[in-house]
């Protein structure tokens, strides 16, 4: 690593082994990529140049990759990560999760959690995160402030939920109009932070938690503003059947009727979405936060990512903390491949081969990493997720020699055996947050010490 | 951590927060467990005593757990961990894996890999490993020597494979009798190391790679000795159908006919084993190395662990490096739960709820950790896997305060929120090798610096 350190305010240059996925079926490697980053954090040029002196010369044994996009995080659930997963979704929510979320009116507690979670995600390479906060406007604003403080690109949503049956009386908006006005106040509070990286997102929790009046009201805010939207959709047989019963149609179509399927609408899960649902998503430029680990617990099925991508739906990956329990999106990229295999073959040995699963469902690590980066960014209409001139320098590094030396790392590079694509597969499958070195967001070093 | 260090040759005492699973549905926690270990590495007593001075006082914020048992590891596949998984099992073996295994006649290469793999597994808390080595006797002996050197409890198997169709001509035993005699030589060479921790294991690769004469010959060695046995069984529709076609019965029953189902027989995978197969395994005291991650790639179905345990079959967990790509068994415990959920619900959203999967298949983290420790040990008829008087001190630690401080850790302990069972769930689901501190095998400190 070079000792030359330029004044970052004037931009900098960096060289390493660039690996990324420009499209969902394309892998790119540039062993001696020289990346120049402007003072505004935007990449000005990338050349294949092993010789010119640069500010930070990582050498060919440090991989540089575009930053990861986590399209679905429940920030207040962070303290319970990894627990209670033997419960079904309804019990998990009412008996376990919502009581925790209620604690965040204690702003000291909120700040402690936010300032623990955000740096943890950044250290895992998550340069963009899409957060559900709480129903509390103040603690939501504090989450946005934590993102600004730590330098993370983020969408932060104050959760709207007012349904008298679908929410507990001790954790709900008192009315649809109160929910709408609190959502507007939260947008104003986050906008008032004046950050170029952090913006609000409209967050009606999911159909069972929201009255028609609330969904309609959020749809109207969306129509009159350019604020992004997130909600849950077609997660679990319970929720899916609920929507069919209440609306006489899928929640996807019902949400569309309320004006909630638009550019930058992030629909979490969608495991049970139909062909018609996928078509409507595509027509509206809405997309899916695919959360493979969480879906194994609460989804009742595997989201058919390959089919959705094949019909042109935008798909990113989500950790779904704490329905999923892994901080960081490399692990979800790996799990997206694993779960696609289990969708492809099926799981029940009591069924005949060929009738257990849904063939032609497998994806590979290239598609998975694309969803984790450029795919997630496209869903949010961000320019990140690829390292190219004109795009922000959101990136992380993996030092292969350091990983090889570290007994607790599972990443092992054997240069005599691994070609670049094999090395890429290894990174997706075996690199963990402790293997991630430096992280930059919009050209600013936010973790590690490059 | 105490600065008092006794002469380990005279035994030592240690105190921490003990967590373990005495049975498959029982969780035990002892916050101030004082464990005394004799000079022979055997636990002499455990008391609940927060006050008496001890040699190593870890305090209540360091968890002590019984060491992990990895019942299925292909040591020579370590350099390719995490790669080539888009191939089907047959192509993965012939085009990718066996060419790598052939390299190990280069003993310098073999030693490099073994001395990289074994410490990596130990650092991940794997105190016992069951290894497939190669067909080469010398490199197999070197693997056993590496285990002795690094202090790992291990079963090391020289791979026998002679089938003229099921193996490539460039990587096979020249005849059944040559395979049998090489297996005997390997047993003698490993026994000659004189280690109390490392022993040989008979290793006919799997039915397609072995002639009847070889299987018969290995069965005869087993009958006349007390050497353990390992092979693969009912992994993938391809292999399962092959066995039915060749033997007119399942490979489980065929292996039994050759005398290969006995005490300490480890059958890897068994995803497609029938009720009859499970019954025969139980009758013979044979058991299963359940490898949930690998099975998602090559198994074509999820092994029904709950059903097998319910009928009394012994089940441990295996990493199946490199069909699985995670070094360490905590991750497999977590994945065993995840894959049991996907077996329970099924994966195909195009099927109706209730007909996608096999209900009553879910296991919880307690059962998963039991398989990772006491269950795997019972399969091998070892006394490890539980910390109790009379059993060897094979154990590892997790420092909760250190994990909380480390941004790259996903393990977050919130004492005000987590009770002991929730903390245990967190450890299973979110602790990774980098969270593991000290590791002891038979009372000897083999990793970390307690």
Please characterize this protein's 3D structure.
2 copies of one chain form a homodimer. By secondary structure, the first copy, chain A, is of the alpha/beta class. In chain A, the strands form 2 sheets. In chain A, strands 6, 7, 8, 9, 10, 11, 12, 13 and 14 form a 9-stranded parallel β-sheet that branches. In chain A, strands 1, 2, 3, 4, 5, 15, 16 and 17 form an 8-stranded mixed β-sheet that branches. In chain A, strand 12, helix 8 and strand 13 form a beta-alpha-beta unit. In chain A, helix 11 crosses helix 12. The longest helix of chain A is centred in the N-terminal third of the chain and has 17 residues. Chains A and B meet through helix 2, helix 9, helix 11 and helix 14 of A and helix 2, helix 9, helix 11 and helix 14 of B.
Quick tags:
nine-stranded parallel sheet; alpha/beta; eight-stranded mixed sheet; globular; disordered N terminus; homodimer; 14 helices; 450 residues
Task: Quickly count the helices of chain A.
Answer: 14
Query: What is the typical, i.e. mean, pLDDT of chain A?
Result: 96
Structural class of chain A: alpha/beta
Radius of gyration of chain A: 21 Å
Spans of chain A of at least 5 consecutive residues whose pLDDT stays below 50 are: 1-8
The N- and C-terminal alpha carbons of chain A lie at a distance of 7 Å
Helicity of chain A, as a percent range: 25-40%
Number of beta strands of chain A: 17
Main interface pair?
A-B, 74 and 74 residues
Oligomer state equals: homodimer
Main pleated sheet of chain A: 9 strands, parallel
Query: What portion of residues of chain A belong to β-strands?
Result: 15-25%
Name the overall outline of chain A. Answer: globular
């Amino acid at each position: 690593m070079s000792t030359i350190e330029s004044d970052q305010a004037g931009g900098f240059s960096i060289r390493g082994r660039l690996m990324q996925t420009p499209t969902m079926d394309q892998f790119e490697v540039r062993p001696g990529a020289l990346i120049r980053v402007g003072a505004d954090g935007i990449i000005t040029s990338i050349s294949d140049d092993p010789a010119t002196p640069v500010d930070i010369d990582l050498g060919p044994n440090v991989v540089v990759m575009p930053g990861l996009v986590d399209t679905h995080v429940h920030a207040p659930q962070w303290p319970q990560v990894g627990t209670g997963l033997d419960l079904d979704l309804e019990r998990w929510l009412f008996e376990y999760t919502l009581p925790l979320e209620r604690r965040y009116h204690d702003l000291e507690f909120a700040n402690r959690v936010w300032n623990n979670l955000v740096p943890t995600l950044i250290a895992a390479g998550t340069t963009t995160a899409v957060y559900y906060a709480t129903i509390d406007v103040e603690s939501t604003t504090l989450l946005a402030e934590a993102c600004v403080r730590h330098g993370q690109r983020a969408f932060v949503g104050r959760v709207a939920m007012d349904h008298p049956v679908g929410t507990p009386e001790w954790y709900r908006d008192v009315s649809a109009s109160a929910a709408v006005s609190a959502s507007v106040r939260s947008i104003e509070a986050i906008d008032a932070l004046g950050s170029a990286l952090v913006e609000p997102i409209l967050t009606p929790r999911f159909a069972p938690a929201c009255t028609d009046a609330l969904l309609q009201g959020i749809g109207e805010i969306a129509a009159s503003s350019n604020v992004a939207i997130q909600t849950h959709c077609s997660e679990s047989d319970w929720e899916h059947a609920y929507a069919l019963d209440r609306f006489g149609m899928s929640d996807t179509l019902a949400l569309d009727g309320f004006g909630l399927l638009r550019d930058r609408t992030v629909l979490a899960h969608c495991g049970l979405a139909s062909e018609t649902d996928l078509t409507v998503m595509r027509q509206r430029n809405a997309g899916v936060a695919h959360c493979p680990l969480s879906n194994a617990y609460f989804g009742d099925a595997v989201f058919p990512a390959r089919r959705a991508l094949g019909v042109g739906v935008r798909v990113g990956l989500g950790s779904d903390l704490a329905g999923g329990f892994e901080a960081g999106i490399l692990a979800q990229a790996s799990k997206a491949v694993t779960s696609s295999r289990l969708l492809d073959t099926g799981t029940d040995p009591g069924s005949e081969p060929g009738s257990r699963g849904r063939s032609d469902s497998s994806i590979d690590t290239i598609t998975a990493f694309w969803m984790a980066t450029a795919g997630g960014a496209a869903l949010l209409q961000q320019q990140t997720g690829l390292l190219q001139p004109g795009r922000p320098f959101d990136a992380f590094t993996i030092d292969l020699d350091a990983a090889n030396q570290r007994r607790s790392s599972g990443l092992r590079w054997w240069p005599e055996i691994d070609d670049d694509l094999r090395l890429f597969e290894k990174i997706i499958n075996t690199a963990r947050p402790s293997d991630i070195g430096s992280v930059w967001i919009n050209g600013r070093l936010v973790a590690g010490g490059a």
